[in-house]
Amino acid sequence: MAGSSSSDGAGAGAAPPFLSTPAPVRGFAFGQALHWVRQREGKGALRQTMELLWLSAVRKFQPDEYYLLGLFRRDLGPGGRRAFLSQKESTAFNRSLNAPELFARTSVVNDKILSGLVFEGVGLPVPRLVGHASTLCRFAGLGTLTTPEALVEFWRRPGVLPCFGKPVHGSRAIGAASLMAISGDGGTVTLGNGREVPALALAREIFARYGEGFMFQELLTNERRLAEAIGATVAGVRIVTVRTASGPKALYAAIRMPAPGAMSDATLGGRQVRAAIDVVTGRILRAQDMFRMSVTDLPAHPQTGAALPGLQLPHWSAAVEAVLAGHEVFADAGLLGWDVLLTDRGPVIAEANSNPLHELYQRCFGMGLLNPDLRPLIDAARDCAATRRAHRGPVVV
Amino acid sequence: MSDRPVPITPGTAEAPTVVLKTGSISNRLDIPQAMAWVQATYGKGRLRQLAEIAPLSFGPGRMTPRDYYAAALFRPELTPEDRRAYVSDLAGARLNDRLSPNLPLSQHGLFRDKVMATFVLTQAGFPTVPMLALYSTVVEAPATTMLRDVGALARWLQDLPAPVFGKPVDGSLGVGGVAIVGTASEGLLLGDGRVVPADVLAREVARHFARGWMVQPLLRLHPDVAALAGQAAAMLRVTTLRLPGRIETLYTVLRLPAKGAMVDSNTGQSPNGVAFVDESGTILRAQDLWRMNTAPLPHALATGVPLAGYRLPFFTDACRLAESVHRLFPAHGILGFDIALAAEGPVVVEINSNPHHQTFQRSADRGLLNRDFLPRLNAAEAESRRMATASPDRIAGLA
Questions:
Q1: Cβ–Cβ below 8 Å for B354 and A391
Q2: pLDDT above 90 (res A138)
Q3: What pTM value is reported for the model?
């Protein structure tokens, strides 16, 4: 049993962590990729290297982005390549729409409990909050667990498990875990990936790593038909919305399917599948194995074998309506990335992000974010942000 | 030469308006006159005054000559250590920045946005002032009446359900605030006794606060506080510190509105003040902010009630409330809460992540970096530094 080096779980810091950690940096086989591109595109090593160096120096693309995004493709042409954003450009793009002086509410979005309170307050569907652990933070309406021992007792209460736990301030599901059951004596907890871990050691790890705030929510699973196609572990649908003069609009959508055995859909290792979604209809357009370059489609889900292109996602209209209503609340935001879960009780908003990575779009759709299809909406969002910046009065603090 | 201390007189408001104060009013102090008065009264020559001012100006407190005279740091009974404990607005803001650095967990933006702050506090279960309506061309308010144009605002004001207080969504220091206590045939009856047409007020709001102007019920203060404050909603400023594993109240100051004022800040019409309140909720010392700190203020400016020894209601509850709310925002080493001691109990009105410390220094007649506060401020700052570097596995804000 991993991480159970001592019977009471003491010394959690020395044992391997139970909670999810950032994935180790994967090596990229540049030689193999270079060879493959030369074979497929007839583009020589020198030309690839020149393009890669230019994109790296001028546009700040990482060398592996050149291959993973398929920037070597001849059919892209200069315009198609210009439409792609590097990670740095992606952040700058987001900031151009969510500049701090425009978007005073960013901080609320980044706090999962505060944003959850806001979403719930305006009637949006959110996961039910079942508990909160912190050495410092407290909530008037929710009893906060302040010690590891109290946390273990909390897990033993009827109806608490199964649940999903994650840090209040974090992203990419780092530190997240689903807790399925606790043994009768309270000694071990079974995690969503099947591991059995000492309960007290897990609680201590939570306080040691995330003592400022760790939240427990109801454990949600994919809607029944979606679960048949991609598995039960809940998949996050990322819907990015932008604010225009006529209100918030959905810019694009993509789905992150959890890797086999994973407790969440995050980029934390394992074979990950992402898919482009038609934001109007909610049908999957194409799927992408994230361990492969974005030039080959994935026709079917690797575990279930279900065909992915054409798969209709459930509750689609309601999901889009919910995120647009949510964006109305954060009126200052020019762009938000919403993580929506499609469950048996309908769409549930897991969280919102003010700095979403557009790599997801670019890899799933196989095209740059600033492509001619999205450009009119993006330009409308930029115009709206410029207007709002001009109309904003001085902030007196 | 007059034997009275040099007065601190108000500057001019930024723009002429009929109803609203549209900018903060900084009081002026005639430095040459003050120097001469100090020389005549205390026998301290100009050179000696300058020799005291210079190290304070270039020291960590960044005190300006105006700060020196306003706080009456020329008094011979003060030691160099006493003087060095004072901070200017600039040094105070820098200290606040160090205590509450801009981290992914920080909520500086929330505190600037009164609409969202009110909503979050309500949802989190804390007593606050509900929002009745919001005039804005930009900001949305969840679950409230939206007024989108001047006409809608004027009509809504004319049909007031009850006395209200209106203020901008992102202002402070009483800028843009107005108490409307009723309606009359000529228009709206304001808290200071004036009557103004609703459309005049609505046009001023639209011209100066188009981003957002929120309307809340007019707070009914506890009678013991109203006895000091008169018509205005005097706020208790509770400044709290986040130390390792706990939140504590650092200091508490009651704002003393000017006579006949609608707000508790400087209106420029007549003097306002501040009162330092000790741990038991008793006023220890008060200060007229239009006068140098050469003598305490004996009576409430609005009502004439004696101040020293006056006990405030719900004081302990107010401090515990501020500390509880601070626990929602652990990234902030320091927060300033404006709490109304209402008839029913304490109510959080606003939260400020960059609290001005002049209110404490002037009312308590003591520098912020005094020997009692300094260890606590240092501990809070160390905890902020620890939090800034903790949990390197987080890439917050990027998802």
A1: no
A2: no
A3: 0.81
